[in-house]
Design brief:
The chain is α/β, with parallel strands linked by helices and 446 residues long. It contains 19 helices and 16 strands.
Length: 446
C-alpha cells in the first residue's frame, strides 16, 4: 500500500527538495505553498503523514495543527521550523504535533522521522510484549529484556541521570523515550540532541542557546536544548562524541541545574531529567583522558546497558514475526511465512548491526518476496554465509578498491544505511563516506 505524504511549505525550493527525497523512498508526495492550500489538499488526498512549516503566510503551521486536532487526530503531523524558532515547535508538540525538524533538514533525519511516524501510527499501544510499559517497538520476552522493562519502570519516575550504553542498533533512543513516557510528566518536552551530528562550533549554541550579537552570525536570540527541555527530559545521544572543551559546561549545567546562554551574564535555573547514550566505552575514554571523569560519574548515576541482539536468545523469533507483519501491512501485502531453514540462518547470524540491521533485512525480504514464504535462498549472502563481509572467491587479495567498497557496503548494511553511524564505524567523516559512496556508485537497494 502506497503511503501518502503532504508537505506544506511556502518555500518552493524546500518543497521540491523534500518531495524528491521522500519520493525516492517510495512515498506518494503532494505539496502545498501555504496553510490554507495545505488544508484543502489534506481533505482531498487523505495523507498518512503531514509535514508543515511553522511560519507561513495566510495560515501558519499552528493553524494547520489546529485543523488536524479537530478533524484528523490520527494523522501524525511533523513541524518544520527555521533556526531560532524551535521553542515554537516545542509548543506545537505540546498541542499534539508528532515531532519537529529544524531547518536545514538532514535528509536521513527526514526519512527516519517520517518512517517512525508511520510505524508508530500503525502500532497502537499494547500490541507488543512490553504493553505494561508501552515502550514503543521494544519487542522481546527474554530474561535480559525483562530486566530492561523492569529498569524502565524503576527509574522512570525518578529525576536521577541515566546513562544508556550498548552497540549501535540496540534501541538506546527507544529506551530513552520509554523512560520519558513513563515519567511523572509524560506530556512535557522530550528534546533530543545528537552530539555527533552537530558541528563543534554550533554545538554549544545548540545546547545552551545564545543572545543576539553574541558572535558573528548570531542575528537573533536562540533558545538552547537545555531550556527547551525545562520541565521534561533532555536526551543527549552519542555523548561519547561530546567535545572535551564543552564537557565542563555540561557538568556545570547538570550539577547546578542552570545554564548561561552564550553572550548572557545571568544563568537560567532548570528542572530537567538528563538521559545520555553512547556506543563508546566511556570507562576507557576516561582512562585515556578523552572524557572527564567527574562528568562521567555525574551522568552515570544509573547505568542502563542494553544487550546486543545475539545475546537475546529467542527474542529474534518474536522480532522477526513482529516486523514481518508490520512490513507486510506497510507495503499492502498479505501475511508472509518464513521457512524453518531461513529462520535458522537468521538465528545463527551474529547481527553486528543488531535490531536495526535485522529490520533492514526483513523490510527488503518483504519487498522482494514474490511468494507466500521467505526461503533461505532469498536471504542476503552475508546471512547465508554467516559473515558480515563476504569476500568474493576471485577477488584479488591486494585489490584495495574492492576491499574498501565491500567494507563501506558492510558498514552501511549493519547500520541500516544510516550514514552518520556508518561513518563513525568506519572511522571517517560523513562527507568522506558520501564521496566514496558516489565514487563507487554505492546506493541503497530499495
Amino acid at each position: 500500500m502506497e503511503r501518502r505524504i503532504l508537505i506544506i511549505d511556502d518555500e518552493e525550493r524546500m518543497r521540491r527538495l523534500f518531495a524528491l527525497v521522500l519520493t525516492e523512498e517510495g512515498y506518494v508526495v503532494k505539496t502545498a505553498g501555504d496553510g490554507i492550500e495545505g488544508i484543502v489538499l489534506w481533505q482531498l488526498m487523505q495523507p498518512d503523514v503531514v509535514l508543515t512549516d511553522l511560519k507561513m503566510p495566510r495560515a501558519d503551521g499552528l493553524e494547520v495543527l489546529d485543523f488536524r486536532n479537530q478533524q484528523f487526530q490520527q494523522v501524525p503531523l511533523i513541524i518544520m521550523t527555521a533556526y531560532g524558532t524551535v521553542q515554537s515547535a516545542v509548543t506545537a508538540m505540546k498541542q499534539g504535533a508528532y515531532d519537529y525538524l529544524t531547518k536545514p533538514v538532514d535528509n536521513e533525519q527526514l526519512i527516519e522521522v517520517v518512517a517512525r511516524a508511520i510505524r508508530d501510527n500503525n502500532n497502537p499501544k499494547g500490541v507488543s510484549q512490553i504493553s505494561a510499559v508501552q515502550a514503543g517497538q521494544m519487542i522481546g520476552s527474554s530474561p535480559v529484556m525483562r530486566k530492561v522493562y523492569e529498569d524502565i519502570t524503576l527509574i522512570a519516575t525518578t529525576r536521577i541521570s541515566v546513562l544508556i550504553t550498548g552497540e549501535s542498533g540496540t534501541g538506546k533512543e527507544l529506551v530513552a523515550r520509554a523512560i520519558h513516557a513513563h515519567s511523572k510528566r509524560p506530556s512535557s518536552p522530550f528534546i533530543r540532541v545528537n552530539c555527533a551530528a552537530i558541528p563543534r562550533d554550533l554545538l554549544e549554541s545548540e545546547l545552551f542557546g545564545h543572545l543576539r550579537g553574541a558572535f558573528t552570525g548570531a542575528v537573533t536570540n536562540r533558545t538552547g536544548a537545555f531550556v527547551l527541555a525545562d520541565g521534561g527530559t533532555l536526551f543527549l545521544d552519542e555523548i561519547g562524541d561530546l567535545p572535551l572543551e564543552l564537557q565542563p559546561k555540561i557538568l556545570h549545567a547538570v550539577e547546578e541545574k542552570s545554564v548561561t546562554p552564550v553572550g548572557a551574564t545571568k544563568p537560567q535555573t532548570l528542572d530537567v531529567k538528563i538521559i545520555t547514550a553512547t556506543n563508546h566505552n566511556l570507562d576507557e575514554m576516561v582512562q585515556c583522558g578523552q572524557f572527564r571523569s567527574d562528568l562521567y560519574y555525574r551522568l552515570n548515576t544509573f547505568h542502563f546497558p542494553l544487550p546486543p541482539l545475539r545475546k537475546r536468545g529467542k527474542d529474534l523469533i518474536e522480532l522477526v514475526e513482529y516486523h514481518l507483519d508490520l512490513f507486510c501491512r506497510e507495503q499492502g501485502k498479505e501475511s508472509l511465512n518464513i521457512s524453518a531453514e531461513a529462520l535458522n540462518l537468521l538465528n545463527r547470524y551474529p547481527w553486528p548491526g543488531n535490531v536495526r540491521e535485522l529490520r533492514n533485512v526483513l523490510e527488503r525480504m518483504v519487498l522482494t518476496c514474490k511468494n507466500t514464504t521467505i526461503t533461505e535462498e532469498m536471504l542476503p549472502e552475508k546471512v547465508r554465509s554467516q559473515t558480515g563481509v563476504k569476500k568474493k572467491p576471485n577477488m584479488n587479495l591486494f585489490d584495495l578498491t574492492a576491499h574498501e567498497k565491500q567494507l563501506i557496503v558492510a558498514a552501511l548494511e549493519q547500520c541500516g544505511w544510516n550514514q552518520s553511524e556508518s561513518a563513525r564505524k568506519l572511522g571517517i567523516s560523513r562527507n568522506t563516506l558520501r564521496y566514496r559512496m558516489k565514487k563507487y556508485n554505492i546506493t541503497q537497494i530499495k
